[in-house]
Amino acid sequence: MSDNIIEVKDLQYQYEDGTRALDGVNLRISKGKTTAVLGHNGAGKSTLFLNLNGILKPSGGEVFYKKSLLDYSRKCLKELRKSVGIVFQDPDSQLFSASVFQDISFGPINLGLPEPVVRQRVEYAMERTGILHLKDKAAHSLSYGQKKRVAIAGVLAMEPEIIILDEPTAGLDPNGVSEIMKLVRELQKELGLTVILSTHDIDMVPLYCDYAYLMDQGKVMLEGTPKEVFDHTALLRKLNLRLPRIGHLMEILKKEDGFDFQDTAYTISEARKALDRLINADPFERKPVDFTVKSGKALRYGYTTGSCAAAAAKAAAIMLIEKHAIKDVVLTLPNGKKLSLPVEDAELLEDEARCGMVKDAGDDPDVTHGIKIYASVRRTEAGIGIDGGAGVGRVTAAGLACGIGEAAINPGPRRMIRQALDEVKRDHGYEGGFAVEISVPQGAEIAKRTFNERLGIVGGISILGTTGIVEPMSESSIIETIKLELSVRKAKGHKVLLVAPGNYGLDFLKSEFGFDIDRAVKCSNYIGETLDHALYLGFERLLLVGHIGKLVKLGAGVMNTHSKIADCRNEVFAAHGALAGAGRGTVQQIMAAKTTQEIHGILAEQRLAGDVYQSIMEKVRFNINYRIMNKMEVGFLSFSNEHGVLFQTENAALLINELRGIQP
Amino acid sequence: MISIDQYAYLSKLKSQDPMVKLVFCLMTLGVCLWADSMIVAVLILMVMGWYTVCKGGIPFSLWTRLMMIPSSFLMIGVVTIGIYASADPNVFMISIPAAGTYIGVSQNGLQSAARIFMKALGAVSCLYYLSLNTPMVDLLQALGKLGVPKLFTELMGLIYRFIFVFLETADRMVTAQKSRLGYESPRSGYRSLAALAATLFIRAYQRADELYTAMEARGYEGEIKVLDTSFNRDRWAYLTPVAVNLALAAIALFLRRIHGGWS
């Protein structure tokens, strides 16, 4: 910028006691702009200001005002002080007169102006700073903020071109700060003033300042727009300064929580823009990586076992090449977003590196939540080999994503591992290959709680995940509530747990058996989870009472009866109908039926209803017992509103009696 | 003292030309001292009280309370005039013998004591009229116009301004010391007071330094030049003080003729 009203070259200042307050300061102040000088106490800001106004004469260097060199002659000084006004930090040190009016008139009178002009200027300065009503007040009766305004008016009345404000906001309440700064901004805009200010109030710098100098020990360490200065976060912190709060928040959101902001933001409006850009960029980026909002509650995203394996592999590979342990690793997810994960148990051997990742399922905890997934990486000639070690399942049956004999690491995670290692190769210019072994020490144990064995995966868990992140469902909170209810029943000492999916079941219990329905736990669609947790809590017996439309799904092994999961009612009826001897036409009719009521009619007409319900009941029993591994006595009863009880297990009646307090 | 200052700013006579008030005060003071009459003094007390309370809007209770302050001193002072010792008990109205002589009160003594008492109160009421209705700044301005050297008025102005700053500072420091039990015992009290005085002196020195720098930044070159507060210049405003004082002087002369000479 060529329009520098003040230019300072290699300014040196040494106090009489030998303190070097300024040590080669270079400064260019642009006309009509607000320039902030930042730095902790004793950085040399105040000394610099006194040099700019000619109060102090530098021991070296030059000060140019409007391109002409300051020669410290009397005339030159008078001219400079007329043009460069300083408002000092403590107004009590500036206001020498008890009369507000007289104090403000001091400057213009010293300029040798005629009385009418002085009077006019004083009035104008008071009006501009909003203190006309204080004209006849005594200085000592004013508040701190008012004194500050009087001090500003006292300088303003001299009609300077540059106004220097030493800590203009110090000692003011938050409202006072914004009022003073708005005033300064207004003056600057309307009168074309050049403003230089020093402040410890970092938050206001990006709001009100156009340019900033960062000083330390009498030197300028950094200069630029506030944004440019604050972007040097590390240096800022080294000099015991901090980011504006908003900037700090944005930094944390980006670093810790994975919000992928394109740019830094230091004011509320900048932050709003950055967030808006992130949210409205494109549909895929609509939600930030770490949070999703379901039914008004923010839920934390987690990441999959696949992400853990890939991150661990990447970290181990970096360690292997860089030959030292690392603390964090950044993983690129399939959607391009980045996830920063802490590295655990880093271990560096001669030709192998190993480390682990803690799996965090976010707000959707599953069996793998909190376990550690390890990767050990060795160098190879070429290519990337991936294998599973201890705790990672082996595939023994056909029809799965991985071939027989392979480790149960799905294609998604394999892709992520390869991509992560390719990144390492690219970043480090490594030409060779890697052999990766994924292991999960707790895998074998955990696998018992999964369906793996049933699927033909033995010896451990599967490494899963296509997107790399676990999107939490609000379901988890429902399940949590159900679990809590179960715990309450358990704590009350209930031996038999009564479960009903919904209000149908509860109403039926009440009308048919005169039950106190408060005894029952409403399990919604989460029958499987409810069974699991009841087992976990150690209930001995459980009675499930549900509408046929729900319970029939259990016949197909569907343990979450929500229709978005599966609607297999017709198929179950059709299959069991066929088993019971229904003809093709009947099966077709069943398949075309809209409701279980309609199906009941069809079966009744064919006199198959009894057999079919019996057969379905057996299958339901089988699936339930499979789920609970025969470790709990479960009875169930199914009904329809029109026909009452359709089927019930042999023990159901006993359980009902027990629940009603009738001893057998 | 702070309350007097505050009332001066609230006074209804604040906007009146301080010169008029100063002239009124000094003239009346002069008449009060010259007349040396109890009746005139009482009249002055009433006139000045009326001006201060009714015209200036100073609360009567405050005015009486302020008048009580010199009264208590005066009481002690005039007692020594009213009561004296003499070997002749006949000069006294009432007397008691003591150590071979008599101590008592005579009619003359009592009269002169009362006269002096009232004269002093009258004079004080003149000064209260000025100080309760004129802010210091205006007074300094008027004093400057009367030809008091600039050095004095400048100094008085600065002292006046910084009395408040230092009172505030001292007040804060005392509070801070008290909160740390600085005045729990006489011993710690002395120590705290010493520390306070020392710190206050250093603060004063720093303030002076800062003030000088700040004034220099606004073009100070050895003389404090400020714009005087403008007041309505009205020559007729002097009419009341002059008329009142002429009347008082006439009364004084009349009384003197009745009583014959100065008494």
Q: What report would you give on this structure?
A:
The complex is a heterodimer of chains A (664) and B (263). By secondary structure, chain A is α/β, with parallel strands linked by helices. Chain A contains 25 helices and 30 strands. In chain A, the strands form nine sheets. Chain A has a six-stranded mixed beta sheet, with helices on both faces. Chain A has a five-stranded mixed beta sheet with strand order 16-17-18-22-19, with helices on one face. In chain A, strands 27-26-28-29-30 form a five-stranded mixed beta sheet. In chain A, strand 26, helix 18 and strand 27 form a beta-alpha-beta unit. The longest helix of chain A has 19 residues, at 609-627. The N and C termini of chain A lie far apart (98 Å). Chain B has helices at residues 2-10, 18-35, 38-55, 60-82, 107-133, 136-145, 150-179, 186-217, 239-259; strands at 83-86, 94-98, 101-105. The radius of gyration of chain B is 24 Å and the shape is flat. Helix content of chain B is 71%, strand content 5%. Chain B has two domains: 2-135 and 233-259, no CATH class; 149-217. Chain A binds chain B through residues 50, 53, 55, 78, 81-82, 85-86, 88, 90, 92-99, 101-103, 105-107, 109-111, 115, 118-119, 122, 136-141, 154-155, 158, and chain B through 5-6, 9, 14, 135-137, 157-158, 160-161, 164-165, 168, 207, 210-211, 213-221, 224-229.
Spatial order of strands in the largest sheet of chain B: 1-3-2
Gyration radius of chain B, rounded: 24 Å
C-alpha geometry of chain B: flat
Radius of gyration of CA atoms of chain A, rounded to a whole number: 39 Å
Specify the number of helices of chain B: 9
Number of domains of chain A: 4
Helix content of chain A: 25-40%
- N/C terminus separation of chain B: 37 Å
Bin the strand percentage of chain B: 5-15%
Count structural domains of chain B: 2
Helix-strand sequence of chain B:
HHHHEEEHHHHH
**Major beta sheet of chain A, specifics?**
6 strands, mixed
Please name the defining characteristics of this protein.
heterodimer; A: 664 residues; alpha/beta; Rossmann fold; CbiD-like; 4 domains; 6-stranded mixed sheet; 5-stranded mixed sheet; 40% helix; 23% strand; elongated; B: 263 residues; mainly alpha; 2 domains; 3-stranded antiparallel sheet; 3 strands; 71% helix
